[in-house]
Structures are given as C-alpha cells and as structure tokens.
Amino acid sequence: MSKVKITIAGVNKKPGSSREYKTGGWRTMKPEVDIEKCIQCLKCFDYCPDGAVKKTEDAIEFDLDYCKGCGICERECPVDAIEMKVEEK
Amino acid sequence: MGEQKGLTIQGNMATALGAKLCKPDVIPAYPITPSTLFPEKISEYIADGELDAEMIRVESEHSAMSACIGASLTGARTCTASASQGVALMHEMLFIAAGMRLPIVMAVGNRALSAPINIWADHQDTMASRDSGWMQFYAEKNQEGLDLMILAFRIAEDERILLPAMVGIDGFVLTHTVEGVQVPAQEDVDEFLPSYEPPHGKLDPEEPMTFGSLGTPEYYQELKHDQTQAIENAPEVIDEIFDEFEEEFGREYNRVTPYKCEDADIILLTMGSMSGTARAAVDEMREEGKKVGLAKMTVFRPFPSDLIKEILGDADGVAVVDRNISPGFGGAVFAETAGTFINESKSPLLKNFIVGLGGREIFKKNFKEMYEKTKEAVETGEVEKPVEWINMDEDVMRG
Amino acid sequence: MTEEDKELFASGHRMCAGCGEGTAMRAILNVAGPNTIATVATGCLEVTTTAYPQTAWDIPLVHAAFENAASVASGIESALKQMGEKGETNIISFAGDGGTFDIGFQALSGMFERKHNVTHICLDNEAYMNTGIQRCSSTPYGASTTTSPSGDVSIGEDRPKKPLARISAAHDIPYAATATIAYIDDLKKKVKKALEADGPALVHVFAPCPTGWRHGSDDTIELSKLVVETGIFVLWEAEDGEICDINITKKPKERKPVEEYLKKQRRFAHLTDEHIEKIQKEVDEKCEQYGF
To answer: Are C100 and C90 in contact (CB under 8 A)?
Structure first.
C-alpha cells in the first residue's frame, strides 16, 4: 500500500477509509449463494461481521473484496441457500 | 485598555483567577493538596454565576486529564489543576494530550512525590513529566502564576504550537501564601486571547474524523517528529507572545531572566519561588564585592538552550539549583544545562545542588554556600562532587 | 438498510474472521446513526479499526487509552452541553471486557455516578484477547486462558464471571441491559433504548471470539444463541436501577444443558464431567434466581 503524507496529530479525516483495505485475500473458503433458494431473510446480512453481504433485487450477493470466509452466513442461513467452497486462487 | 485591579490573594486563587479570565468551557478536576483551592475557586465562580463553564467533578486525576482530552477534542477551552501524586496518576494521559496536540492548560501546585508521602513543595512531580510533550512554566510569585495561566492558554492555542502547557507554582510557598497581584481587566484578556477553534479538526458528526489512530512503525516516528518540531519551534512564538503581553499588561516575562549576570563569575540558575531568596542572596554577596548573578528559568519546556548559552556562557562557574532529583544521576535542570553546553567550545564549570525537597526550606545562606562551593571548584579546577545536597541535617542521617 | 453508505462501520477492518465484535458493531452503529460521537478504549476493536491512515469509523471517534473511554466521553458530553451543541447527538463509549470490567471500571462508575448522558457499550469476549487471551474478571469459571491455563492441578479460571450489568444497574442509571449478537433485533432495541435514556446507560454485549475461545469461525452466532438457551448468559434489561425488577427479554422455553455450549469451545475442552456438572448446578441456581 502506498504511504500518505501525515496529518497533524495523525487526525484521520477520511471516514470509512478502511474500505481501501481489502480483506478478501485472507479467505480460504468462499461463500456461494443459490439465488433460487434465497428467501431474502437477510440473516446473512445482519450476522456478517465484515459487511460483505449485499442485497440484490431478488437475493443477496457477496462482496468478495471483504469476505474473510468465516462461514457464518452458511451456518445461519435458514434455507441452506449458502455453501462454502474452497477458494481457488 | 481597562484598569488592572489590585488584590491580595493566595497562589491557587491567582491561578484560578487567571484561568477564569480565560473563560474556559470545561474544567474537569480532582482535589489534591496543595492545589485544592483551584477547583474550589472555579466551583465558586460557577456557583456565583461569574464563570459560565461546566465543571466535571471526576473520580480521579486520570479521569480529569481524560475528560480534558475529550472536551478539548470537542473544541472546548479546557483546563485543570493538580499536584504530586495527581500529576503522577495522569502521567499516561499527559503524553496522549500532547500527542493529540491539545492546548489543555494545567495549574500545578508543585509538590513532592511519595514515598514517604509529603505534601510540601518541590518540583519532582512536574520534572517527572518533562518528557510528556507539555510545555512547562514555573512561577516565582503569585503574580507570575496568574499571568502565566493567561500566557499558557495563548501560547498553547497558537496554531504554530498547539500543545498543552502546565504552570507550576510551588506548594504552600506560593499556593497558600497571600501576595499582592494586579488582575488584568476582562476585556483586555478577551482581546489578548481570542476564542479557541481547533485548527486540526474536532469531534463533529457533520464532519467525522478519527482521533488517536493506531500509529504503526510506518508512521509513528514521523508523527512524533512532527509533534517534537512544534515544541522545538515554540521558543520564538513564546518570546513573541511574552513581548505582546508586556506591551498589553506592562509586565515583562522571559524564558530565562538574568539578574546581575553581565560581569558575573558565578551564576546561580534557579526555578520557581526560590528565585526570590536567591536574588536577595545575590544582592548581599554583591555588597561584599562578589561577582555573582542569578538566572531564573521561567520556561523549562521547551528547554531554553539558546538563552542558557547566552546568559551563562561567559561565566566561570554555574551553580545549577535543582528542587528535584533524578536518582542515579542528579537534578533535571543540571542534566539539561550540562547537555546544552556539550558541543560548545567554551563552557562554564557546572555544579549541581539539590535543595528544598519535600518542603525543606531554602535560605540565603544556602545560596551563599553554593556560590562558595562553585567558586572553589572554579579556582582549584577540580569538581570533586558534581552533585551536592544542601541543607542536610547531619544529625538525622544514618551515616 | 443494505446500501454501503448506511454502513457506519466500514468493511476492511482487520478483525479475525468470524469475530463477534464485527457483527455487533455494524448493528450498533446502524441504530445509533450518523449523529453520534464515539470513544473507544484500547483493545481489539480499536487496533483493528484505526490503523493510520485508515479508519473503519464513519462517525467521529477518539481513542485515547485503555481505562478511560467513559471519562473521555464525559469530557465530550460536558463540552457539547456547555457549548450548546449537545442536541440529539448520541455519545457512546465503547470498550471491551478488559476496558470495562477491569481497568476501565473506575472511570465507568464515575461516568454513571455523575449522570453523563453517555451510553457505554461493552463488547465482551471474556478475556484480554488483543494481548493474547489473558484472563479478565469477565472470564467464566472453567475457561482456560494464557494466564489461567488448565493443567494437572488447575481447572483454568477458578472464579465466576463478574456481574457487570447488575453492578452497573445498581448505580441507579436509567438503563442497563445485556445482549448477544445472536438476537440482533433485541440488541438493536436495547441500544436504541440506551441511547434514548435521559442519562447514562450500559449495554453489555456478549460477542464470541473464535481465536480466543478456539471455536470454528462459523460457530460465533450459534454460541451467542446457545449461551442464552443454556441460561449461562441471561438477556435482561433494567430501567432506573430497578435491579430487583428486571425484565428478562429472552426466556428459553426449555433450557439446554450447558455441555452443548461448553463442548463447542476448546477453552473448555479440559473440563471433566464433574466440572460440567458443577457448572450446570451453578447455572441452574442462577436461573432459579432469575425465575426460570
């Protein structure tokens, strides 16, 4: 990551700038959703520690830039619409 | 220009009055001897409607400084008072206040540190925080305590500095001693000290910022360097503001004030209330034909190396009088004075005298003894004991 | 509610995969909204979200030190009040269990007693996780940590968990509650009530730590549910310091055996049947006190 010029007292004036840091690279398992099964209950959205679940028009999708592959979404999905698969790199 | 009002008051009241004239918004404070009168007076000012401020009666000095930090980050003008163990307890937060570049002002009733517990004057409490990044001012008398509070706010809030500052007045010797002071008119202080708007940002939901980030090795050293530069550049700003104060209020302040130093062979270097006694001793010795002078240090941080060299550089010997002790070396002022001369081609001989710990009195005769000992070292060219403790009671020493 | 711009706790934070704090923080800031100022104590939440020059916080935040999130917040609240800028702004002090139960307890008690309008949120993962899983007064009986290791003559942590929320409520503060991330709506409701309370409030949030508890990263929510279903962690709220008349917000119909909860975590792997029986007995007694 390229470095920036420091600010006085290290005050950070870029709220939410951690989004520049993609944690998706930590992942070994990757979630996949079966949109046919998804009932959009959004439990996966609520429970995701990384804010990596996005609502789409008729289901959800994963933001793989940030998904760390914890598998909470798969475990908590009430209709088994999510499956963790080995990440191919 | 309003008229100054003469009052006869204790030192703590002088610093409280100085603070009040600066119209602080938030004053978190915890009582500790000998500075308790400060929060008491502030509470009275608020209770009587003379000061419109929020006082936070915190549960510890650590929380006092923590609340100062929170308030200052919100854009409030903030001050507190403490002493001794209280300053020690807030030690951690002193560094954080400076690192966050917050112009918090603290009045300190300088007092010894335990153990043994002791409530009387020395400079150990503030000397122990000399690496915290705070500016440090020391008053000789109550007038200076009052003026230095006003000056401390103005200097601390100057955009070129933006650092916290502490004003030390010696415990009991000043904190509880009644002296005459001239009190500047409110409108003049208002003009001298404009309202505070943090230039580096504040906690505001309209413009979210993160303060107190984790500084990784990639950035920490640069951030510390940046902070250090602010205090290293401060002397120029301090001199400028001291001059402005003198013009406005008619009282002169210097980072180091020389007294009869021009032709002096030996100079006493002092700080705080002992300077008055030292001055009287110098006058008596001068009458005896001794070429002795006095340098009184008002600003210890940033260390006034330039003035120390200028004022002491031509003397044969300097008696550095420390009301503190760094066990295993000597006094803090001595160490830094010695450091100042390290790369100079010409340096006076330096002797260190430890005096007045835990409220031990300091007499004129003690300064005369220091003069004689320094003079002797100069004449013989030998410094047998660089650090000597003065006014010891041999009868109670263990051997 | 799913748009990125409403996420005030941004992705890209460096919490471990499956960290319960991430789930908690997203929900909490979602309820608090942008008109919020936060302080955070030193700890996992702080180091994983504020590494310069990035921040996961989309609201104003200050981190000062470990033990003083509540006193820094006291200063902020007083300043806003004095300068006439308090308005509807929420002030939250965040700390982990170390920064709340142990080192931050004095500052927290002072903030409660002085009646600052601040909500303290404790994210409890039951040990000093940021420094490497050392025991805290929040660590439950029987847990093996790096400073309360189980061994031939040690069961691990040998003292019960400090009842933080009850002690907080005993300050006669307007609102105190316990919550877990399994019941997100309950958590959100409690955070909302805490923020709306006229005065200090506490929300004690149970947030599992896969790294420190040594469970699967996907077990986080399930454990937050099991801890309630077994009766180990009781969800309740108390208003105006009414600690004798608390409102149990989730009462398991039929309590599950504690073993189900304990067996999923390697920090409890050393426990014998005898130990588990003892824990079960204590939980039974506690639940009886709570009336179920």
So the answer is: no
